Amino acid sequence: MAFNPDFDLFQLPEEYRELRSAIRQIAEEQIAPHAADVDENERFPEEALEALNSSGFNAVHIPEEFGGQGADSLAAVIVIEEVARVCGSSSLIPAVNKLGTMGLILQGSQELKAKVLPDIAAGAMASYALTEREAGSDAGAMKTRAVRDGDDWVINGSKCFITNGSRSTWYTVMAVTDPDAGSHGISAFMVHRDDPGFRVGALEHKLGIKGSPTAELYFEDCRIPGDRMIGEEGTGFKTALQTLDHTRPTIGAQALGIAQGAFEVAVGYVKERRQFGRPVAAFQNTQFTLADMKMKIDAARLMIYTAASNAERGVAENGEKLGLMAAGSKAFASDIAMEVTLDAIQLLGGYGYTRDFPVERMMRDAKITQIYEGTNQICRMVMGRQILA
Ligand code: COS
């Protein structure tokens, strides 16, 4: 078979390379300069929101018919990766906008999409509310209850660890509609922040991603119209898990971007830093460490782009279920992000441990990627089940 550069699987097509360079420029010029301050002051990255909203990179996945760009999953992960390369907190703007709308895009009615998605395309944010205090990895054990009242639904309960929770306008909320039906008794809804009975609670104080507010949400007789249900009653748990099959690669992309950012800082540093009369880069130990970092990053990138492309096709090429590679790419990329950021700190030595360099922030930001959107243990469990199915 002759090599065809147009179908070279291992070289992104031109349009994706152009997309990368466009978002990289915005990230470097408008987001990177504020990343340390955002982290230091635990403040929302307003500059990043403005930059992403004004360039249309806030939610590239929204279909064109709803005012978005209709970009595919591969484009979405490239955007997230490039923002994460300079600021992990800011990368959660496009990542969580996708997470908070994916269930609606996959399973919602045209009317509900038309109500919500143009807002997100225009710059409002969306969050995904699955987790509760007593229902984390065991998401099906949730207690938040939705009861039908005439044409409306009335929701009572609370959610926690909701990324960007205090800044969103729309929330995909999973709640129990039939307590006797197990995971088949859970339904998904779109809740608006102005809905009566909805309230944002306390924010978490975290190790990393400090610019992204992680909030509790309270539903106190929160009344929403009946047409806000996503899909059919009782399908909410499947919609929630199907969403994660599409969005775990986006968390992988966040991890990958953080790792890439730390790697580049380390490469720059070891060429400048001199010890024993030569640049630290001249030592074979340094070169071996850089080589290991690079191998891990490149492998993670291939997995994530493959998982994103699978999501686009709706199936994996070899007939495997989507979730296998989605969970695998997220777990692998987040594990290597942790390793790579720790290596970067080590290469920078004492300076790496200070806040004068970004690698300690990157290490703290990387840690959450092993935990959220399914701990890496849950991701491995999802994979194990599918491998053996
Ligand atoms: N897509 C669609 N449906 C799915 C699915 C998927 N990826 N995975 C499972 N389902 C279906 C199952 O087929 C089952 O339906 P049936 O009863 O009709 O067969 C139903 O959903 C329940 O699945 P399962 O029995 O596997 O549920 P469990 O409670 O045993 O486990 C896990 C589900 C652990 C995989 C799930 O709770 C999970 O992913 N937990 C982590 C949650 C998470 O990622 N939280 C982070 C939130 S974002 S920060």
TrEMBL record:
Keyword Nucleotide-binding listed: no
A GO molecular function held by the record: flavin adenine dinucleotide binding
Boundaries of every Acyl-CoA oxidase/dehydrogenase middle domain copy: 128-222
Parts forming coiled coils: none
Superkingdom in the source lineage: Bacteria
One Pfam family linked to the record: Acyl-CoA_dh_M
UniProt KW DNA repair keyword: no
UniProt catalytic activity: a 2,3-saturated acyl-CoA + A = a 2,3-dehydroacyl-CoA + AH2
Cofactor(s), by name: FAD
Segments crossing the lipid bilayer: none
Record-linked InterPro entries: Acyl-CoA_DH_CS (IPR006089), Acyl-CoA_Oxase/DH_mid-dom (IPR006091), Acyl-CoA_Oxase/DH_mid-dom_sf (IPR046373), AcylCo_DH-like_C (IPR036250), AcylCo_DH/oxidase_C (IPR009075), AcylCoA_DH/ox_N (IPR013786), AcylCoA_DH/ox_N_sf (IPR037069), AcylCoA_DH/oxidase_NM_dom_sf (IPR009100)
Domain Acyl-CoA dehydrogenase/oxidase C-terminal: 234-388
Keyword annotations: FAD, Flavoprotein, Oxidoreductase
Residues annotated as domain Acyl-CoA dehydrogenase/oxidase N-terminal: 14-123
Family: Belongs to the acyl-CoA dehydrogenase family.
Protein known as: Probable acyl-CoA dehydrogenase fadE25
